[in-house]
Amino acid sequence: MSSFARSAIVLSTVVLLTPSSATNFGCPEDPFFINDTGRQEAFDAHNTLRSQIAQGGVVAGSSGTYGPAANMYKLTWSCELEELARLQVESCPRALNASADHILPSGYGANFFWGTRDNNNFTSTPLTDALKSWKDEATTVAASNTVQSTNREFANMINAKTLSFACNAAVCAGDVAASAACVYELPDLNDGDEMYTNGAGCTKDDDCTTYPPSRCDVAAKLCEKLDTTTPGPTTTTTPTTTTTATTTPFNAHPNPVINQMCPANGEMNDRIRVKAMEMHNYRRSQLARGAVAKFNGNLLPTAANMVQLTYDCELERMAYAHAKTCSRAYSNLTSTPNVTENIVTILGSAATYRVDAMGEAVKSWWRVIKSEQVSIGMAVTFKANHVDAPIRTFTMMAWATTTTLGCGVERCSDGSYFVVCYYRPGGNIVNSKVYQTDQPCAMCPAGTACSTPLCVPVSVIG
């Protein structure tokens, strides 16, 4: 937990990133955790700070100025990382949650804050005070673009190569104790690691080179990654010497780095695949733990046999072949047993790139549970009147015994996107349960193991 420094960050004259008042986060709401107001606060706090550093406007406590910084990227909000942050603050632990079903997976970075009202560690909301304490770490040391032992949380906030993050917060014990956490897509930096590259903030698109192609927000001096099919930053590794000859497998994509999951499928990329899989599994996990409400506000029961989906490259190949037609119509799956599909057209005004369209598609299929009165009941049985009703897209995603999915996204000639996802074994079987109702993991099928609240295939666990 960072110290709660009270000295203010001194700013030189810079153009500040104007806080957005209309960011569309699209994350599920939970009255006990973060809402859009908190999301906006964290989003603006991070990106305003990054803009200030890109322009050289943050003065250290003893000497020097942080920045200016080249290739400083604007952060985006991730609902999946928000769920990881929720697990860290649930029940207001004093440190990052180490319990088996809450521990932060490897490969992510995190900032954590805990406080009580008794000692004035938080006075307004825990997230507000957490953000301030992390930013104030800039005042504890002389300015440098490398991490020091007392500014590690500050380093996570300004790591120039990070592209996405999310935060969460909880107040517990009768409003006496609180925890807040932010989770970042890149791991924590170590002492001595570079937080950013010294240099001028961007003034044109060509200045943004870490994740090409990118654009420059000239006013904020922040880079924005455009095509989310871009590879990660270049790193140098030392190859391991072996006595076994190796061959490079065929990869159909012109940039194989971004096509490792399904190398034979050159029209898609890993960013879209991960987006599809993570957004599906996040929503399935919310349903499994009983956190999904119907149109009337009633929470659906918990799921005992909800399987974590894995990605299927053959399903993707078929889904993309159909998406490429831009027909806006369902596929003819009569020759493909046990496969079902969801389709949707996403307007170009709602998505800049295919990965955005994938995210909007998943949200559109799932949100019908909150709007449709022709819906599944508390027995969660799929009935004949659901077959052609909008609720079918939700039940397709939520079908507990489905194990794999594969998706395709195509930008059509009118600028819209046609999104197709195939599921196997498919659901929406009339008079069958969408899932078994009981405590999460109480009825995990053979070949899976419980990772609350989902039943994870043993092959994934390793």
What does this structure look like?
This protein has 2 domains: 14-217, Pathogenesis-related Protein p14a (3-Layer(aba) Sandwich); 260-461, 3-Layer(aba) Sandwich (Pathogenesis-related Protein p14a), CATH 3.40.33.10. With 462 residues, it is α+β, with helices and mostly antiparallel strands. It has a 4-stranded mixed beta sheet with strand order 5-7-8-6, sandwiched between helices. A 4-stranded mixed beta sheet has the order 12-15-16-13. Strands 1-2-3 form a 3-stranded antiparallel beta sheet. The chain is globular. α5 (270-288) runs parallel beside α7 (354-366). Helices cover 23% and strands 18% of the residues. β10 (214-217) and β11 form a beta hairpin. It is built from 10 helices and 19 strands.
Level-1 CATH class name of the largest domain = Alpha Beta
The count of helical stretches stands at: 10
**Which topology of the largest domain does CATH recognise?**
Pathogenesis-related Protein p14a
Roughly how much helix do the residues carry, as a percent range?
10-25%
User: Which architecture of the largest domain does the CATH hierarchy give at level 2?
Assistant: 3-Layer(aba) Sandwich
Relative strand content? 15-25%
Give the structure's gist in a few sentences.
This is Venom allergen/ancylostoma secreted protein-like 17. By secondary structure, the protein is of the alpha+beta class.
List keywords for this structure.
alpha+beta, Pathogenesis-related Protein p14a, 2 domains, four-stranded mixed β-sheet, 10 helices, 23% helix, signal, CRISP-related, Venom allergen/ancylostoma secreted protein-like 17
